[in-house]
Each structure stands twice: as structure tokens, then as C-alpha cells.
Amino acid sequence: MADELVLHVGPHKTGSTALQQMLLSRRAALAKLGIVCPETGWQMFGHYDLVDTLSRRRKAADLEALQLETANARTILLSSEGFVVMDVPALERLRDLFPGSRVRVIHYLRNLCDIWPSHWQELVKHGQSMSFAQYVMQAALGWPETGWTALNQFDQLAKLRHVFGANSLTIISYDLLQSRQVSLAPHFFSTVFGLEGDPWDAPAPPINLSLQDWQIELIRALNGLHRDLLGGPETGELRAVLLKRLEKAEPDWLTTFKARVAEAPTIDLASDGPLIDMLQRRVVGDFGPAFEDRKEAIEAYLAPRTRRVGLFELSPLQDDPLREPLQAFYRAVSSELG
Question: Which residue of 140, 315, 332, 334 is most buried, as measured by CB atoms within 10 A?
Fold first, then answer.
């Protein structure tokens, strides 16, 4: 039985993919120290197959094999942004896999002005077609987060506290690390495991870089056509095929599309606006004791900032001049899907 279970839960858009790449490259070195980041349940850059299995969406991970792989570990390290969108029963199943192990949950908190647009873009890249205005409406209504809805920090933290206990939770301010120009992976190894020096202090290479606004809106438009014409399901494969086609040649109508996106109305997110201020102060009020470097971390999270986001929409009318070329482009892209 492991002494400790460490859960890195992300969430999305807090440097998780870069950290997970470092975990992959240092898995053997960690194992020599008794810290096992298991291969069982790992897919791409995190334990997504484990999340799917515990959420009972599909049996993607062998739970008995996971327990065997970690049987002699001093510490078990699991990493996935999917943990924060699991429901309480699924989180309880995760906890019960390792009875008797002390649990530490590592959650990176990022201000809503920055993480909302970034998370919305991530949903679009993975097949969603909601506008940013719809995303903000979901957030304002406090919808429970499912993986395909607006990020809900309070909901994430409340579930984790309920299942694992208040003392298990460590909140690290992503904004504070950014202001100090501290690289996430070395900070994680140092803070969580006390590991410093080579190979733990190497910064992670940038991964999952943001796309331009027009690229996000083009992907979103095609996602909407995919939903309307085929009934879904959501897929991130459209994005990969689309971007590859654009590398070869840009269609003539794309210049007009880019101009429409650039000229679209905008919304200004402000941390001192009533919605964001209320949501962030609710998090601080309920979870303040869990912050690492509490005073500075909370100040960084609540620091005044603004972010301007475009609100591009196609006309709902069939005579929108972009609709026909977009439909033709969608048919070409979708024909290349596996």
C-alpha cells in the first residue's frame, strides 16, 4: 500500500500538458525514488483512460493492473485535467482504489479573465460549437462542469474537498507563478516532492499553443456544421484536418472570413466586474486556507485585469455569403476524417 496518492488535477489551460510531458520523460527517474506515475490508464499526456473508466463511459483502463503496477510504490502520482470534471461517485471510486493512502490534490487556479477565453477555445478545438457569449452564460448560471461546459472553479474544488477532505487540497496560483516567471514543471517537482537540480529544474517546452482568433472561429463554424449536418458527435479531428489543409493553401473566401472575425463585436471581461469578482471571491472565501503562499497567491488571483474577446457569429440566414463556401469546405474536410 502506498503511503501517499498525489493527484494533479490541472485544470485545463494551466500548463498541464507541458507538465505531463515532463512526467513522461522523467517517469523512470521518479520510479527510482519510489514515486510511480503508472502507465496503466495513461493516454497521450495524462491518465485520461483512467478517468473514462472510473466515470463509466468506457472500460479503457484495467484497474487491477493499476493496483498491481503501484503495489510497491511509496507515492502514486496520477495526472489528468479530467479528474476535476468527474462526478462525486467517480471520484469516490478513485479514492477507494487506494485505501489507506494519504491523498494530496494539486489544483492550479488561474484568474477567470484569462482562463475563460482559453478554456472556451480548448472546447472549440475538441469539437464544441458554442459561442463565447454562450460559454459566459453557462458560467454565470453556475452550471456543473461536465468536460463540455463552462469551467466552474468552485464546483471543481467543492467536489474534491468533499471526497478527499479539506486537508488534502493544495491550491497553487498559476497567476503568481506567471508573475514570478516560474516554470511550472520545476515548481511542481520542488513543491510537491522536494526535488531540485538536474533533471528536475529543466523548463518544459511550450505545448498546445493558442490559435489565432480566426482559426478558432473557423473551427467553431465547422463544428457547428458537423453537428447540424451529421448530428455530431463532437470531434477534435476536424481541427487537425482543417489546419493541415490550410497549411497547403488558403481558400479565396478566407480573407473575407478573417475580416468578419476581426470586425465582430467584442466583450470586455474585467476582474472587478460584478460577475467575475463575485465568483472569484466566493472561491477565496471558501478555499482560502488551501492556497500555497496564501497572501500573495490570493492577491495574484484577484489582481485587476481585463481581457477583450470577439463575439463573431455567422448570419442565421441562408443568404450569408460565407455559408455556402463554408459548407463546401466542411464537406472537403469531413471527407478526410477517419
Answer: 334
